[in-house]
Amino acid sequence: MTKVESSATRVDNSATPVALGGTRGGPDQPTLRNDRWWLAPVITVSILTAFVVYATWAAFVNKNYYVGAAMNRDLISPFYSPCLTQGCVSTGAANHAVISWWTISPALLILIFPLGFRLTCYYYRRAYYRSFWWAPPACSVTDAHLSYTGESRFPLIFQNIHRYFFYFGLIFNVLLTYDAIMAFRMPGAGGIGVSVGTLVLCLNAVLLWMYSLSCHACRHLCGGQVKSFSKHPIRHKFWKFVTPLNAKHMQFAWVSLFVVAFSDFYVRMVASGTITDFKLF
Ligand code: FES
């Protein structure tokens, strides 16, 4: 018997028998892992639940979302921009007032797009499938469900709409970038300046761009279905630019989520008079 045949036919007694369709750790335990695999799902559930609760409250509260000329500022919460209804309290460029029949919170009119973008995001899908649906909760841990149909059927087939939410997300990025530029305005206090609020809205706009540009749909838009990059040098340049960002998509997803919520919170605190928006220069 040759050396190769000998190793191929040797029985490995340390191997765990695997039954397809069975539980991964056997009938009595969901996994053989003894590390803290449950930590990531717990953190994900905690953060996403906190965000959903806060965003829902902020969207319905319908006040304290704009800091205007009375406070020598032009700061609008990203949850309420663009403010498209008659009831908007924002002034100047932020007050479009184009929809007169909408009488409840203007945030409810627009949040469907940024929330839809995040809800259908490939990374968030992985995160909430694992943490909320336990399908599976982690590598080598038993699924909480006996069958798996993927995203090929109703309702999850609608996740494919993500690329269209990506296009809407770009429009919102332009609008929030405009808001960040307007945040340099200091009406009645010298015209132009930089406050903490200016920096918060600028950081928010930058991170939202990073989140969008690192999106998988964006990378596909730049370099997908190209057989030869040498024949598409411009697309190759875009693809080379977004590919390293795409590798950091998870980080951009979490940081931008936190900062967009913090931006709303900051504007809300200033608008309600709880804190002062310090002018830096
Ligand atoms: S994959 Fe996450 S935003 Fe597109």
Describe it for me?
The chain is mainly α. 48% of the residues lie in helices and 6% in strands. The chain has helices at 3-9, 39-61, 107-110, 112-119, 122-131, 162-182, 196-213, 216-223, 233-246, 249-271, and strands at 66-67, 75-76, 83-85, 95-99, 185-186, 191-192. A two-stranded antiparallel ribbon has the order 1-2. Helix 2 packs across helix 5, helix 6 (162-182) runs antiparallel to helix 7 and helix 7 (196-213) packs antiparallel against helix 10. The longest helix is centred in the first third of the chain and has 23 residues, at 39-61. The protein is globular and about 75 Å long. It starts with a helix and ends in a 10-residue tail after the last helix.
User: Helical percent range?
Assistant: 40-55%
- Give the names of the bound compounds: FE2/S2 (inorganic) cluster
Query: Unreliable stretches, pLDDT < 50, 5 or more residues?
Result: 1-9
Q: Label the overall shape.
A: globular
Biggest pleated sheet: 2 strands, antiparallel
- The total beta strand count reads 6
Proportion in β-strands: 5-15%
Gyration radius, rounded: 24 Å
Mean pLDDT reading? 88
User: How would you spell out the order of helices and strands?
Assistant: HHEEEEHHHHEEHHHH
Structural class comes to: mainly alpha
Strand order of the largest sheet: 1-2
Measured between the Cα atoms of the first and last residue, the distance is 82 Å
**Helical region count?**
10
